[in-house]
Amino acid sequence: MPELPEVETVCRQLEPELEGQRIERLEVFDARWARPARPKKLEAEVSGRTIRGLGRRGKYLLLVLDRDQTLVMHLRMTGNLVLVEGEEKLDPSEGMRLYEGERSTSERHLRARFTLEDGRELWFTDPRRFGEAFLIDDGNLATRFERLGLEPFSDDFTADALGEIAARRTAPLKSFLLNQSGVAGVGNIYADEALFRAQLHPLSPAGSMRSEHHEALHEGIVAALQAGIDGGGASIDDYRDGRGERGSMQNEFLVHTREGEPCPRCDGTVARTVVAGRSTYYCSGCQVRLRRRRRPARKSP
Predict the structure, then answer these.
(1) Of all helices (H) and strands (E), which one includes residue 212?
(2) CB 3.0–4.6 Å: which of 16, 116, 191, 202 could bond 177 by disulfide?
(3) Which of 49, 59, 197, 240 is the catalytic position?
(4) What are phi and psi of 251, to 5 degrees?
(5) What's the CA gap between 116 and 122, in Å, rounded?
């Protein structure tokens, strides 16, 4: 958390605001955000650059700069990237508006700050300090992300492609979806929501799916992620969008965090288990648990 819908929301909100803006100054307040680069070195390399655009790859935010370089940022668990404007400042970590005299309070989770040429600021806040950023040549982006899986909204992501990725995988479907090498951008929340939509049990072996399951899961992933984008992301804990506002997807969850509540599809009850160390929510009544498919026995010569 944040996952693809949260990152995509921030990207869509900030791109029209940032495109063409010159970064007057980058200030790094936490060395962990820039490591292994030295903070002063990253500040010098980014300050004075012009923003050509903003993009996303999986859960990564891409701040595309001039001179064919990109500042790649990952929000990790509690990171936020928020545009702050005017004398009235927004504290993205608490959703409170603070004035200039209270800046010290609002900046306690501030890891980096971009000052733009129009006087506005872009803040990277992160209470748990897992977020990161690194500058990379555009020509090396493909290599840097070669281990990331398919983008769920790309033409390459089809039911057949999903089936090929899942084939012979023995890991539970929940673990399979959390592994970014298969499908990029799906995390704990949207894995639960996608599996519920597909009526597949999270503990089913990924390789146990048949073609009809590939179709159902493909549709479930796309629908769950699109619902998250439509809701502006899910603000369960720290997530705020690019304007510092809460998302509303948490109000639309079908099963995630709804343990003990009635299933929205059948007479069952939403249950909770733990898969890959993550709380996992599902309906045991309508989410089918598939069995591991046996490989055909080899014929004797």
Answers:
(1) helix 211-230
(2) 191
(3) 59
(4) -85, -10
(5) 8
Q: Tokens standing for 45?
A: 């390399």
User: Does the annotation count 2 as an active-site position?
Assistant: yes
Q: Active-site residue among 22, 120, 169, 278?
A: 278
Cβ(212)–Cβ(233) below 8 Å: no
* Distance, CA of 184 to CA of 162 (rounded, Å): 12
> Has 151 been annotated as catalytic?
no
Give the Å distances, CA to CA, from 6 to 1, 36, 52, 103, 218: 8, 26, 21, 26, 20
Residue type at 250? Q
Structure tokens that stand for 62 in this block: 């891409």
Q: Is 172 a residue of the active site?
A: no
Q: Can 278 be counted among the known catalytic residues?
A: yes
Q: Domains (ranges, CATH) in the chain?
A: 4-144 (3.20.190.10), 159-283 (1.10.8.50)
Quick: pLDDT tens for 127-183.
999 999 999 999 999 999 999 999 999 999 999 999 999 999 999 999 999 999 999
Which tens digit of pLDDT belongs to each residue from 266-289?
999 999 999 999 999 999 999 999
Q: Catalytic residue, from 2, 92, 152, 202: name it.
A: 2
Cis peptide before 92 (omega within 30 of 0): no
Closest CA to 254 of 201, 190, 203: 190
Dist. CA 168–CA 107, nearest whole Å: 49
Active-site residue identified among 3, 6, 17, 132: 3
Name which residue leads in pLDDT, 1 or 115.
Answer: 115
DSSP character at residue 102 = G
